[in-house]
Amino acid sequence: MDSDKAVEKENFISVAVYIRDINNALKSLRTRVKGEITKINIYPTAVYFTIKDTKEDALLNCMIWRNVYEANGLDLKDGDEIIVTGAPEVYAPKGDFKLMARTIEYAGEGALKKAYEELGKKLASEGLFDDDRKQRLPDFPKKIGVITSKSGVVLQDFSSNLDRFGFSVTVVDSRVEGKDATHDLLASIKTLSKIDDLDVVVIMRGGGAWESLQPFNTESVVRAVANLQKPVITGIGHDVDVTLTELVADFGVSTPTAVAGKLNEPWEQFINSIDKSFSKINKLFESELNLRKVNLNNSSGKILRNFGRIISTKKENIGRFSEATRKQFRKIEKRISQANSALKSSTGILRSTIRLKKQQLNRGSANIVTMYKTDLLELEKSIKNHTSLVIESYKDKLKNHQDKISFIERNIKLNDPKRNMRLGYSLSYINARLVRDTSEAKTGDELITHLENGKFTSRVNKVG
Question: Looking at domain 117-254, which of 1.10.1670, 3.50.50, 3.40.50, 2.60.40 is its CATH number?
Answer without folding.
Answer: 3.40.50
